[in-house]
Structures are given as C-alpha cells and as structure tokens.
Specification:
The chain has 326 residues and is of the alpha/beta class. Helix content is 51%, strand content 13%. The termini are far apart.
Length: 326
C-alpha cells in the first residue's frame, strides 16, 4: 500500500511535514526499488524508496520506508546500508535532500533499538535537529491519533491489528474507513490488498472469520458500498451457483420423493381398483361356470375373453378332480 501515491502523499503531509509548507508534486514523484545489494548484505532490502519532488524549493526529497513487526537489532546496519545504496544512485548534479529514513513498526513488544546513529553528514538540518531514523510505532499509537487520508489510515490500521486477536472486533473500523473511499475508482485494489494481508498475517483461526465479515458486509450492502459490489460479483456468483446447485439437488430430491409418493399412491390406487375389479369379475365368472352356465353366456355377461373363460373352466375341472381323488 505504501507504493500508492494516495498513501505516501498523506503520510508526508500528516506526519513528516505537518507544520511545514512543503508542497509535493506527485506527478514528478515516483517509487524506486532499492535493489543495490551485495555480498552478505543481500538479504537487506528496504521495503520501498520514494523520490518526492518538492515544488516549493524545486528539489527532490528521498524517503525510505522500512517495515518491522518485531524489534530488530540489525535495523541500524540495514538503514546505514540503505542510506549508502540510495545516495550512490543519486546523480551528483541533482538538487535533493534526504534520504529520510522511516521505520514503521507494528509489533506488540516495546521498540528498544536506538533511534539515531552518527554519520559525518548534515542533510535535513532544516527539518530535523540531527540525522536519525523516524520511528512510527503503530501498535502503541491510539486509534484516534492515527490520522491522514482513508487510504493511509486503512494501511496503518491494517498494520496495527493484523497480528492481534482483537482484529475480529476491528472489522467495522476497516469498513467505516472503506466507506469514506466509496467514490474512489481504485477502492477494489485496497480491499484486495487488505484481504491478502489479513489472509497471510492474521491469526490462523481468525482469518476466515474476518474476511467473511468484510466480504458479507460489502456484498449485502450493510455499509452501502455499491461501488465495490462488482469487485466481489464473480466470487459471489460462483458461490451462489454452488449453493444454488446444492439447494437445487436437495429440493429436487425432496420434490421427487414427494411427487413420486403422490404418483405412487394414485397409480397404486388405480391399479388396485383395476386388479380388484378384474378379480371380482373373474369370481362372478367362476360362480356362473360352477352353476353350469355355458361359456358363451359367461363371456357375454362378464366381458372376459374366451381364453380367460376357458382357463377358468380348466381351474374348476382340476379343482373337482383334486377333490374326487382326496
């Protein structure tokens, strides 16, 4: 997030030069990757370096951000290396100040690393009494003291609470800040980056709950964030399809059972009536035949086929034979 102009410009005006008339032209400013590393220092890379153009004095100000989540005794070594690396890359003819070294810390433990180191340089005397790195201890800063644009506050609040279990209680705070950004075209990017950060750094057992609360609030419009509903549209659509298919299968199964039962009852009743009727007619035919009525008469009155009446005659004959033998 500190690679974004909206975040850095607000940090500069809110924290670096709050009482100084320094007007930064961000059209002439840019983020610089600090890849000048060598030897055993190849693991020491600053998070980001910014080259800011001060319109008031027509010079560049170099700003170096370093991010720490725990007190690190190597910080001074790292910062000295960064300082040398950046200064070696600055053209000699360029009018500039800095680099200003900024450590943003969000760990729970107290920061116990010295804030200054001694170098034979005198840059930034106008704004700072001595060369030192500036420590911003976000975790131990009260929420109301975290100021600036909503983009900056979202970044700082994310840093402050991402590793804390209280993050579950701070979801509404994130959403209130996002609501201030409702008309920003890049709000989806901030939601995405905040979500990715939470997913990678928040307590494992809370990550899914926090992300689900943020997503649900945005999708349902609880905070009227209509401009980022589209951001979650595809994800919501996929989930909706999956849920719809599952519910559809369940409803289909239930309806199938219900419809099948009803149809079975109807068909069973019809078949039962038919079978009962057929058996009743056959019983009448049997009685007529036993009373000596001719087959033609039985066929006429019962409507049974000739074959069926002949079969019934054989049944009666076989029955009589069995009775005589016994």
């Amino acid at each position: 997030m500190f690679g974004k102009t909206a975040v850095v410009s607000s940090f500069v005006s809110s924290y670096l030069f709050p009482d100084t008339k320094v007007e930064i032209d961000f059209n002439l400013s840019s983020a610089i990757k600090n890849d000048t590393v060598d030897g055993f220092l190849n693991e020491f890379r600053s998070d980001i370096v910014y080259r800011l153009f001060d319109k008031t004095r027509s010079l560049y100000i170099y700003l170096l951000f370093e991010h720490k989540s725990t007190p690190d005794k190597r910080t001074l070594i790292q910062l000295k290396h960064y300082l040398n690396s950046v200064e070696n890359e600055i053209p000699e003819s360029e009018k500039h100040e800095g680099p200003i070294l900024v450590v943003i810390y969000h760990g729970r433990r107290k920061w116990d690393i010295p804030l200054s180191f001694h170098l034979d340089q005198s840059i930034l005397k106008k704004n700072f009494s001595r060369l030192q790195y500036l420590l911003f201890d976000i975790f131990h800063t009260p929420d109301e003291k975290i100021v600036g644009s909503p983009q900056l506050r979202l970044a700082l609040m994310g840093l402050k609470y991402v590793r804390a279990r209280s993050i579950i209680k701070k979801v509404d705070l994130f959403l209130v800040i996002l609501k201030e950004m409702i008309n920003d075209s890049d709000i989806g990017e901030y939601v995405d980056e905040l979500s990715l950060y939470i997913d990678s750094a928040a307590p494992l057992d809370l990550r899914e709950r926090v992300l689900e609360r943020i997503k649900t609030a945005i999708i349902t419009g609880e905070y009227k964030m209509s401009s980022i509903k589209e951001y979650f549209k595809q994800e919501g659509l996929k989930e909706g399809i999956e849920i719809g298919i599952k519910k559809g299968i369940e409803q289909g199964r239930e309806q199938g059972i219900e419809q099948g039962f009803k149809k079975g009852v109807v068909q069973g009743t019809e078949r039962g009536i038919k079978q009962g009727t057929e058996k009743g007619i056959e019983q009448v035919a049997l009685n007529m035949l036993k009373n000596g009525e001719p087959a033609e008469k039985v066929i006429f009155y019962t409507g049974l086929s000739t074959e069926r009446v002949v079969f019934l005659q054989k049944q009666i004959k076989n029955s009589d034979n069995d009775s005589g033998n016994s």
